[in-house]
Amino acid sequence: MAEETWQHYKEKKHSRPAPLKGIRVLEVCTLILGPAGPGFAAEMGAEVIKCEIPPMGDTCRDLTPFGYFFREQGISFVHMNTNKYWLGLDLHKPEAQEVFKELAAAADIIEDNLRPAVMENWNIGYRQIKEINPGIIYISKNGFGQWGQYAEENRPSNDGASQGFSGYSRLSSFPSQPPLKSRLYICDNYGALMGELAILAALHYRQRTGKGQFIELSQTEAIMRAMTWVWPYQQITGKVAMPAGNRDVSVCPADTFRCTDDNFVAIAAPAPEEFRGLCTAMGRPELADDPRFKDHLTRLKEDNAAEILKIIAAWARTKTPEEIEKLAKKHGFAASHIWNTREIVEDKHFRARGFMTEVDDPILGRYFDHEFPVMMSKTPPKIKWGCRAVGFDNEYILKHTLGKSEDDIEKLYDCSALGKWADVPTRRPPSTWDGKAGLREV
Amino acid sequence: MEQRWPDWIRERDDPRIAHTKPEALDDITVLDLSYKNFAGCYCSSMLSEFGAKVIRIEPPQGDFIRSCTPYGLLYKGEGLNYLSEGRNKHHITLNLEKPEGREILKSLAKQADVLIETFSPSVMDGWGIGYEQLKELNPGLIFASITAHGQFGPLKQNPMPDYDNITQARSAIQSATGEVLPKGKSYDECPWAVPTKAGPWIGWAQPGTFMAVGILAALYWRGISGEGQALDVATTESYARFDDYAALWYQETGIVNERFGNLDTACWLYCFAPTKDGAVFLGGLRLEMWQAFADMVGKWDEWGAASWTTLQTFMREEEQLKWAPLIFAETRKYTSEELVRMSVEYAQKGRLAPITAVVAPVCSPDEPMKDANWLDRGIFTPVKDPVYGEVIVAQAQQKMSETPIRTRWVCQPVGHDNEQIYSEYLKFNPAKLAQLKKTGVI
Q1: Pick the CATH number of A254-258+264-337 from 3.30.1540, 3.40.50, 1.10.10, 3.90.550
Q2: CA A299, CA B143: separation in Å to the nearest integer?
Q3: Which residues of chain B are within 8 Å of residue A79 when distances are taken between CB atoms?
Q4: Which of B163, B166, B243 to mutate to test the interface with A (most CBs of A within 10 A)?
Q5: Is the pTM of this model over 0.95?
Q6: Which of B397, B401, B409 to probe by mutation at the A interface, max A CB count within 10 Å?
């Protein structure tokens, strides 16, 4: 049944349409919170035009692990900026603002992640654009939204600030230790995803009514939404929600345990049959009927949870993660060793599904990247190409999309409204570029 | 523009007036069959906030997920995670293990736009209510499955249950987050210096959100083509998608991303720093912001900030490890609040003003709930629930000028709306309902 639905999914991906085909997005975004959202839309088939201030463009181009580059590009930047068209437009200049307005008149979505009112100062704010395109869906994403004390103070934000502000980091640490920052830019990426969700809901509404709208997204508000129990817990008990290291205080048992080889394994076995399976695997079937552990709610209570986790920890210390994974499969509970990136990249299952998808980029070459993680049987999202140099698609966009003449374009270059990359790594194309590959025919 | 932008937009998207406006998805009916899986519940919450009518279908004894609550705590009989994520949903019971239950499900599915399910792959097929079977009855149906491993690929028959801590372990995110084990120390001495997962259920909330995005994209496509389809999210893939640079970095250099404590492998200036009374986040992703930080703590000359020309060199591992202790020695001299204020003042009067470093407090989770800024923005406005009374859950995280999201109620007990929904959709009368209840179908 499901075999039929998903047969040859990976192989047929590129011959099938993507769901947002025909939707045009204008992006005026930097770093991650901003660009990640249009990146998702582009993988779902939207035509995303990324506007950068030439010649340096998006600051994210600089950010790269320990100073390493990926084919002369910033590594996060490649991952985040897939399937986009690249316009070098200096929006400080009135001529550039006019170009933007022409594009906006025929766009469906505009995304920015600047501080409040910057777009309006450039004459391309929501109030100005809706006059020329009332159906526009316009989202501004940042730390604190468009109004309120912090927005009025014009406070800057970014992912780490949001992890701190929301309490997310404090809750993600060990009780005796300082708060721990996630390795992920979780508040940026999650904020971007929540922004896309609102955009698509607005698109559905526009499909029904023709009406556009403005959306504001604070990344801190978005991540606080995902912290479910924390808020009613604090309201109801009057206590502060406390960090618990790797233990899940809402699921018992669920924790990370140290094994015999000093590697680690995560285990979860809360449902009755799962817990019984774990107890059997440990050679302690009687524990499943112990009054302290007899049902989930009882087991979750602080003393009981501490006790059962201690028993499991002592057992895990005598096994390897692989042995415990095998036992989990046999006895029907969940366990996993702590995977690293190499395993993700090389995993057969992820390759077979096309989650680790091979990108064949005319400029960057071949590589594997994470595919958009919703597989859609009829309209598969997909990565087609990675990032480009600042202003790489200027001519294509101005001629093809706006029908400008060579003369018009030259004038825009002359007044510096339009521009291209600085001749430095991460801004220019890789040195292997032949001057043609990746350029679109006009 | 006559009116200031923040005032203008607040008049239109303040959550306080949400109830006066239309809802984006109020023409959409969703069946949520999530079982033992919070990702599915969170996904349907996302849709319900935009106004979709969500019919939440549980087995007659209720879903196990209701018992997944911190420390086993119940409020008026309800677990606290479910208290947050039952929101806006109509709760009915239906026993899908009985043939009569499946027939009832088919009748509901004929009238639905979206179906969300989280059973092991092939369970729904085996019951005769999988995608291929239901699409015969309703070709426009969007059939959304969330599981640990997905609907196809080598692991599709692996029935491992899906839990948040397992997803965090399998996605290679946990391995890259956490304190570094100090040289010469063992895990016995530093049990906190281990791969560390996030506290909140992000390994469930994030895949649920991705699926909601996929569902809305599929809905858009259906609006154009009339076709429904099947969607497949594997929670591990979904969460791994946020691992920005790790996969590309490994492919280019063979380096496996490892944990780096509260510094950041790919950014500078970007860390949590200790203060007199806690910690702050420091961010300065442009050279001038890093210089502003050095200046702000009185180290402009000593550190030679005027001579710095690029951030690139600071991103290197050895440079980060050299600079971090110098920075922390300075931040320890102040309270968190003093440092936040110093940054704001620097933006007004500093040598590089208005450029300043981002300094944000790392909050305990009780602080956001008391913060006037967030209270003003309506994130923690108590919901007046007819069953549970006034409950605080995070809400209004996206603010929209035309179709604002809203939380009408937070939760319902098991089977709360049986009568209403079965009468509305299937015209069952009380006698029929009594009979179904007696035979264990509902």
Answers
A1: 3.30.1540
A2: 35
A3: 244-245, 247-248
A4: B163
A5: yes
A6: B397
